[in-house]
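Customer escalation, tier 2.

The customer says the design service returned an amino acid string that "doesn't look like it belongs to this structure." They asked us to rerun it and document both sides in this ticket. The original structure tokens are below, unchanged.
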């Protein structure tokens, strides 16, 4: 039986952190066993906010190398760079022309990011969810792993596919049943979808774009830096660590990180740390983080020493992705009535 196809990606907007790993990439690694997996580095999304041209290519390579270092296996997954497959931009244009503007104006992430940018906000930022719809729909993805923050965007992708393309441009088969142009994807809500919060504020998520580097642990931070960041992480004056106390978001976050990074799980970690003070807990968490990241950093160093290997992986991924994406694009062009390219 054919495996359900999954597509996901991360923007190369800076160094990947524990949130990207525990909330996304670590789950992708498990999905490889059971699904047909496509993972891209979404570099076209990275320029929807101001970016540094001298940094983009290096960050794109780094993100792809980190996918592999975290356990994404190119023999089982298609790993590629979004902008290497031009069909993403082309399908995004076709979808733009059928997507009502007010669907985009109500996207929460746009409103939040637009506030930060004031007059400088680009059309690209508004259009981000349409490009994301193109990313997903091009690969006939059955499932898209989504965190809380991306649910609204996936819903939009579903509405564009169903209401704006299939309902308007789909044909009927000989049996009278509609033949969809685009596959309507389902969200994949992961049981272990960890949401990692900032080290300096337990109520906001750990993020690449937070100007305070101390708010996140990146996957390539050396052990001394990890220890330093954890030492400085915000805590509270209460003795003993616990889960689920809304008054203690930082405690919940740090204990949650310890449970995952130590491999002990929530129950064991909570029992171990129930009476512990911060002075004992923080070195324990630092040790767990350093040990969990050690194999990722080792593999990353190996990959960095052999750039040709990453080039080969991305070239092969591009070829596989291109074949699937182009077929969907041509199907959509035909449904919309374009002259065939011959
Ligand atoms: N703190 C987090 N906890 C759990 N999951 C997270 N993800 C991001 N931050 C956390 C998940 O990582 C994937 C890729 O994210 P992205 O880089 O495409 O964009 P993002 O969600 O906007 O991540 P950042 O770090 O906050 O980036 P910037 O600062 O550039 O916007 C997604 O699956 C996301 O859920």
């Amino acid at each position: 039986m054919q495996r359900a196809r999954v597509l996901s990606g991360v923007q190369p907007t800076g160094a990947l952190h524990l949130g990207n790993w525990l909330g996304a990439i670590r789950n992708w690694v498990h999905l490889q066993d059971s699904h047909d997996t496509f993972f891209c580095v979404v570099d076209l999304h990275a320029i929807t906010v101001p970016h540094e041209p001298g940094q983009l290519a290096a960050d794109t390579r780094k993100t792809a190398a980190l996918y592999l270092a975290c356990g994404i296996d190119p023999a089982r997954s298609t790993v590629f760079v979004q902008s290497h497959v031009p069909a993403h931009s082309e399908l995004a244009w076709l979808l733009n022309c059928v997507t009502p503007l007010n669907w985009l104006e109500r996207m929460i992430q746009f409103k939040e990011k637009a506030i930060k940018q004031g007059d400088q906000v680009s059309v690209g930022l508004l259009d981000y969810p349409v490009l994301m719809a193109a990313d997903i729909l091009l690969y006939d993805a059955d499932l898209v792993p989504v965190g809380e923050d991306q649910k609204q965007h996936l819903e939009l992708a579903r509405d564009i596919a169903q209401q704006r393309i299939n309902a308007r441009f789909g044909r009927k088969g000989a049996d009278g049943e509609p033949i969809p142009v685009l596959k309507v994807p389902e969200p994949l809500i992961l049981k272990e979808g960890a949401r990692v919060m900032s080290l300096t504020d337990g109520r906001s998520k750990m993020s690449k774009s937070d100007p305070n580097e101390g708010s996140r642990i990146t996957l390539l931070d050396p052990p001394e830096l990890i220890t330093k960041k954890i030492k400085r992480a915000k805590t509270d004056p209460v003795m003993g660590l616990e889960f689920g106390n809304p008054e203690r978001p930082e405690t919940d976050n740090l204990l949650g990180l310890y449970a995952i990074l130590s491999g002990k799980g929530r129950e064991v970690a909570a029992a171990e740390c129930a009476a512990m003070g911060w002075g004992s807990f923080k070195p324990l968490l630092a040790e767990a983080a350093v040990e969990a990241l050690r194999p990722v950093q080792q593999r990353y160093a190996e990959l960095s020493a052999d750039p040709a290997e990453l080039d080969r992986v991305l070239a092969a991924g591009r070829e596989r992705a291109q074949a699937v994406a182009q077929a969907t694009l041509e199907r959509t062009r035909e449904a919309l009535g374009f002259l065939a390219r011959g």
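Tier 2 assessment: The sequence is consistent with the input. Residues 147 and 311 are 30 Å apart (CA to CA). Residues 307-336 form the longest helix (30 residues). Sent an explanation to the customer and offered a walkthrough call.
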